[in-house]
Design a protein that fits this description.
About 20% of the residues lie in helices and about 40% in strands. The chain has about 170 residues and is of the alpha+beta class.
């Protein structure tokens, strides 16, 4: 798996063009994903469901390698910026980075909200969903908005993303 940077806001267009180009070239061993997250945005007291990129400006490419043919193919697609860390030293995801991407992709291309409760010390307890296994990386919880800010590391860079959650009703005996 490789990370491909696109122009922010052009991910959907790039994805459409790249998938079409891959199909035309007969590269059946090449897949492209644009992971997104489902969030609920509050506007004027109303809750509005929305989709937002999980990693704005980035798509994920799974291929045996990024050879000259694939590099040329992707470069021709509008919105292409580069492969990470750069086009002359393309590196596949490994170890923690690969594990992180596989974690999110295991929930599909659109990551739904996690289901959580809070313990007696008011700490978040993830019952199911994409936040499960990332509890130690949660740096802030906003119960009112139903979001958890998670600190992730990839390619030796650290960044924050918001993931949505819904509070499960707690049953007391």
């Amino acid at each position: 798996m490789y990370v491909l940077q696109t122009m922010t806001g052009e991910e959907q267009r790039f994805l459409r063009l790249a998938r079409h180009a891959v199909e035309r070239a007969g590269l059946t061993d090449t897949q492209i994903w644009w992971p997104r997250r489902r969030l609920v945005i509050r506007r004027q007291g109303r809750r509005i469901p929305s989709l937002a990129p999980l990693f704005p400006g980035y798509t994920i490419v799974e291929a045996p390698e990024i050879d000259d043919q694939r590099l040329r193919l992707f470069r021709r697609c509008s919105g292409f910026v580069r492969f990470l860390p750069d086009n002359t030293a393309i590196q596949e995801l490994r170890d923690r980075d690969l594990e992180l991407i596989r974690h999110f992709l295991s929930f599909g291309e659109i990551v739904q909200q996690s289901r959580v409760t809070f313990d007696v010390n008011n700490r978040i307890v993830v019952q199911e969903g994409p936040l499960k296994g990332l509890e130690g990386k949660i740096v802030k919880v906003d119960r009112r908005k139903g979001r958890a800010k998670v600190q992730l590391d990839m390619y030796d860079n650290s960044f924050l993303i918001d993931l949505g959650f819904e509070l499960m009703a707690e049953h007391r005996s």
